[in-house]
Amino acid sequence: MVASPGWSVLSVRKLWQNRIVLFQLAVYDFRHEYLGTWFGFLWAFVHPLLSASILWFVFSHGFRASRTAGDHFFLWLLSGLFAWQFASLSIRGGALSIVQNSFLIRKLAFHVEFLPIVKIISASFLHAAFIVGLLILSWKDRGPDVANFWIAYYWLCALVLSLGIAWLASAATVFVRDFAGVVEIGLQIAFLGTPIFWDLSILPESARSIAALNPLYYIVTGYRHALLGLGPPSGHLEFWIPALLVFFVGQFVFKKLRPIFADFI
Fold it and tell me: How far is 120 from 166, CA to CA, in rounded Å?
């Protein structure tokens, strides 16, 4: 993994050339995340499934929210929750990826810009397993549907948005360590502001158009439509304009600040 002067932050060719190293780093990161715990890798699956089960019980029995998706409320809830989990894990891990691997920053031959990508690949391992489970759950009641293929597209949407934010957040955290706390607070606000366990229809008509501008709303709704066989939702431009803006601004900021990372680590 040899860095070259003038290399842009993201190059498909460079990613492909370093695919084995990226995969190995992602596997190491995933294993390190759960190293030393009693249940090891099981925690990666137990925690989100337990959270989803509690939310399902509360909102289907306590608040009677199952009318949102009828008989498919559990699948509706899981699809939104797991879409959110992938984005939040990628952003949270990406924000800390530079400061947590400071020993690599001083290695001139290492592509520092790969560290947030490694975190996203690591989060993708768990996400892939959950997608398989969601598809099985979907096929159990409805059978395979061509709309299911849209899940790959919305996964890509989540990846692009998460990577752009991760580049920005990781660069900022190098200089201001407290920025990681800002990211955490921002994720909590975004969790409450994204219709993961509530539906947009509960909002007044005037507020729905504003809430729909949330890029995570597009991703969460897309996952649900793909798994419930509803086809792609609207709002493509409303998502891609801010998502690509964040992506390219993240690249630019990271590229400009990258040469001085070593001075602040």
Answer: 9
Q: In this structure, what token pair is assigned to residue 229?
A: 């066989």
- Nearest-angstrom CA–CA distance, 49 and 167: 29
Integer Cα distance of 107 and 59 in angstroms: 50
Query: What are the tens digits of pLDDT across the range 74-110?
Result: 888 889 999 999 999 999 999 999 998 887 777 656 7
Structure tokens at 126: 């768990």
| Residue partners of 222: CB distance under 8 A and separation at least 6 | 83, 150, 153, 154, 157, 232, 233
Contact call for residues 40 and 22 (beta carbons, < 8 A): no
Q: For residues 106 and 265, what is the distance between their CA atoms, to the nearest angstrom?
A: 9
Percentages of the chain per state (helix, strand, coil), in multiples of 5? 80, 0, 20
Collapsed DSSP state (helix, strand, coil) of residue 41? coil
